[in-house]
Amino acid sequence: MNDTAKRGILLVEDDEDIATLVQIHLGDLGHTVEIAKDGKRGLEMALAETWSLVILDLMLPEMDGFEVCKKIRSENEAVPILMLTARAEELDKVLGLELGADDYLTKPFSIRELTARVKAILRRIKVERDMKSEALADKLEIGGLCVDFEKRLVELNGKVIELTAKELDLLLLFARHPGRAYNRQELLDLVWGYQFIGYSHTVNTHINRLRSKIEHDPSAPKFIKTVWGLGYRFAEPKELAE
Fold first, then answer.
1. Which distant-in-sequence residues (6+ apart) come within 8 Å of 107 by Cβ?
2. pLDDT class of 1 with cuts at 50, 70, 90
3. Tens digit of each residue's pLDDT (9 = 90 or more) over 67-92
4. C-alpha–C-alpha distance, residues 61 and 83, integer Å
5. Backbone dihedral angles phi then psi of residue 30, each to the nearest 5 degrees
């Protein structure tokens, strides 16, 4: 595989009208979109470059989308794949995901939905890449709060705090990256999954519940800070030492 990074999207779609429409609208978002009109050519292009995303139709001449997806995954586990399918059968969708597709969209679809899925996938990949670049500690002990990442155990002033799975996932994410601000959609992507577009109230509710369990005064939190106009962040050590 060519190691030269290619900041673009590969669209494997044999319907010329759909391909052109997708190319135009994703181009308006600032993406370079290249088109392959059959599965064989799509596979060649997918393996020849490093793409930010592959949008792959299921029903293709020369080689179907299932086979293309399978072969891409055998060579490249990292590139995200959004599968397009005109089939409504659940089995086809499940098979696509099992072969390595990150998401699927059933035809006919709206351009608005497609662009939302593309944005969500690329945003998730960026956040995950950023997270992997940062060293992860085994345990954080700060301001009376002890977070054991491996054991998924939280204690406050020596007392075990009972958290729900999502509350714990939120706290682990925050505690691993003190000082880093996350907007609500990033938190949805990382904790709930990027399909939860538009459910920002879910984040707010869980933040409030989490604060009620770990903060001495939830109305003036010292651990989980609100970043006005953006979202939330975990306090830095120097703030908790004051």
1. 18, 84, 85, 86
2. very low
3. 999 999 889 888 899 999 876 666 66
4. 16
5. 100, 5
On whether the CB atoms of residues 38 and 61 are closer than 8 A, the answer is yes
Map tokens 């899925």 to a residue.
117
Q: How many residues does the chain have?
A: 242
Task: Please tell me which residue, 9 or 238, carries the higher pLDDT value.
Answer: 9
DSSP-based three-state secondary structure for 240: helix
Specify which of 9-13, 183-187, 227-231 reaches the highest per-range mean pLDDT.
9-13
The set of residues, in sequence order, having a beta carbon less than 8 Å from that of 59 and lying 6+ positions away, is 14, 65, 85, 86, 87
What backbone phi and psi angles, to 5 degrees, belong to 222? -105, -20
Q: What is the CATH number of domain 8-132?
A: 3.40.50.2300
Any idea where the domains of the chain sit in the sequence?
8-132, 139-240
